[in-house]
Amino acid sequence: MGGITAGPVTLSPMDLLPLFRRSGPGPTEGVMQRILPPDASNWLIITDPPDGVPVTVADMLIRAEEVFGFEDEHDLVRKAAGGANGGQPYDWAGMNIALIRRIHDQGLPATQAELIAEMQDWFADQTGGARIPDSRSIRRRITPIWHELRREGT
Q1: pTM of this prediction?
Q2: Fewest beta carbons less than 10 Å away: which of 5, 9, 22, 88?
Q3: Domain residue ranges in the chain
Q4: What three-state secondary structure class fits 81?
Q5: Tell me: the pLDDT tens digits for 24-39?
């Protein structure tokens, strides 16, 4: 006589297969006849109801550790949707912080070119030299600040 199992369980891949057909639309509901509770080593056969438990694709979840394991095993790259730098290739927010700290601690350098070079050095230090934006990209972000601070000083 079996017991009651509740909560997240692993579903039998063979029971799920009809829901994920590659050719044409598959059924929207499947019947689970085998489950594997957490910490169990053997599959349990569902006997009540006798035909199994109906399950839809919407009822199923994939555990994060399984997704991450799959990505690692198949050398797939996880990309953050937003992240600290909003998905941009360079850490512009980090550069702005470095820029503010530099100006606060040391003031403005004599030329904008010096400031751009310092920010390129900052990127080199942060990425081990792997991701350094060109001076033109940095200049576009620094110029409005440079002009405003130079205007204040005159």
Answers
A1: 0.44
A2: 22
A3: 10-73, 92-153
A4: coil
A5: 777 788 898 998 888 8
CB 148 within 8 A of CB 112: no
- C-alpha closest to that of 28 among 2, 57, 7: 57
Strands (E), the chain: 10-11, 29-32, 34-36, 44-45, 53-56
Q: How distant, in Å, are the alpha carbons of 79, 83, 85, 133 from that of 76? A: 10, 18, 21, 26
Structure-block tokens of residue 101: 């700290």
Q: Which of 94, 72, 98, 73 is nearest to 83 (CA)?
A: 94
By the 8 A CB rule, do 14 and 38 touch?
Answer: no
